[in-house]
Amino acid sequence: MISVIGMLLAEAFASLGAGIAMGAAGFGAALGIGIAVAKAVEAIARQPEAEKRVRTLLILGIAFIETIAIYAILICILLIFVA
């Protein structure tokens, strides 16, 4: 039989893991979006006539990066409430 202290400790570690995972995912998403925007601005500065295509690809890339961050939020919620 699992003791009360063991259950509380497992819940505490699950919450800690969720916090660390969300922080890492948020940092990764912010870093990815920052790099993508920097490269898009650089591409538009080099070739202004390709602005529309670069902007479309940038928005698509940002959507994929944000999807990863949303998956991380889902995993964190599962860690907190299921564990």
What does this protein look like?
- This protein is mainly α and 83 residues long.
- It has one domain (4-82): Up-down Bundle (F1FO ATP Synthase).
- It is 90% helix and 0% strand.
- It is built from 2 helices and no strands.
- Helix 1 packs antiparallel against helix 2.
- The longest helix is centred in the N-terminal third of the chain and has 43 residues, at 4-46.
- The chain is rod-shaped.
- The two termini are 17 Å apart.
- The model has no long low-confidence stretch (mean pLDDT 90).
Summarize the helices and strands and which ones pair or pack.
Elements: H1 4-46, H2 51-82
Helix pairs in contact: 1-2
Shape: rod-shaped
Compute the separation of the termini in Å: 17 Å
CATH superfamily: F1F0 ATP synthase subunit C
Mean pLDDT across residues:
90
* Structure annotation, total helices: 2
Gyration radius (Cα, Å) is 19 Å
CATH architecture: Up-down Bundle
Q: What's the CATH topology name?
A: F1FO ATP Synthase
The structural domain count equals 1
Low-confidence stretches: none
Order of secondary-structure elements: HH
**Which class in CATH terms?**
Mainly Alpha
Counting helices, strands and paired strands, the structural category is mainly alpha
Short description:
The chain is mostly helical.
What brief labels describe this structure?
single chain, 83 residues, mainly alpha, F1FO ATP Synthase
